[in-house]
Amino acid sequence: MANESRPCPCDIGDRFDYGGRGQEVQVEHIKAYVCKPPASTDKAVIVIHDIFGWQLPNTRYMADMLAANGYIAICPDFFVGQEAWKPCNDWASFDDWLKTRNASKIDIEADVILKYLSEQCGAKKIGVIGFCWGGAAVHHLMLKNPLLKTGVSLYGVIKFFEDRSSLLHPTFFIFAEKDDYIPLEQVTLLEQKLKQNCKVDYEVKIYPGQTHGFVHRKREDINPQDKPYIEEGRKDTINWLNKYL
């Protein structure tokens, strides 16, 4: 039984009924979902899942959207076989669960996927996007990995890396105005630190009236008031990738 006294913002939204247009592959020790565009390209995007894992239909929907916009999209299992979080789990155990899935401990997997994209897919320009836990992972990679060209962090958990802002690559940060998990004060502080320390292009954007997960966890057809912002978030993501890849 879930602990209702401590609801998680990641439960807000919808689980898409979506099968996916890509295929699952094995890349060394990592399982991954890959979707390729109709025309050949040397541009690729790594998609980093949220706490619900690489098989969440919503995340595959986003990967397919990237492919439809001309990118090789790959969503690896960054939990590397460990179970993803389930909404029915007891939230009282969430902190212990999270300790074994550190968003800054993904460098080995990132390097494996980068090698695969380069050698097996012919990718020469590679970016990364991520949601929630994955958004924090994007923040980490933008601070550290020299092989990536750009990143989009969608409601990435700021507190994981709040003291680090010397980005290596252009990074776009998407946040929701009514995110119960990422207070606007944290977003303001992030902006201040980026302004002080960041030498590359960046943007921090807050979407009015939106809640955590809105870009990939809300169905615009049943949330009409949110539709413009959901579509804007997706379009902004594509535009940023187009600019830097």
Automatic annotation (TrEMBL):
Entries under SUPFAM superfamilies matching the protein: alpha/beta-Hydrolases (SSF53474)
One Pfam family of this chain: DLH
Dienelactone hydrolase domain span: 30-245
GO molecular function, one term: hydrolase activity
Protein's cellular compartments: Cytoplasm, Cytosol
Gene3D superfamilies in the cross-refs: alpha/beta hydrolase
Key words of the record: Cytoplasm
Family (UniProt): Belongs to the dienelactone hydrolase family.
Protein name: Carboxymethylenebutenolidase homolog
The organism of origin for this protein: Anhinga anhinga
This protein's encoding gene: Cmbl_1
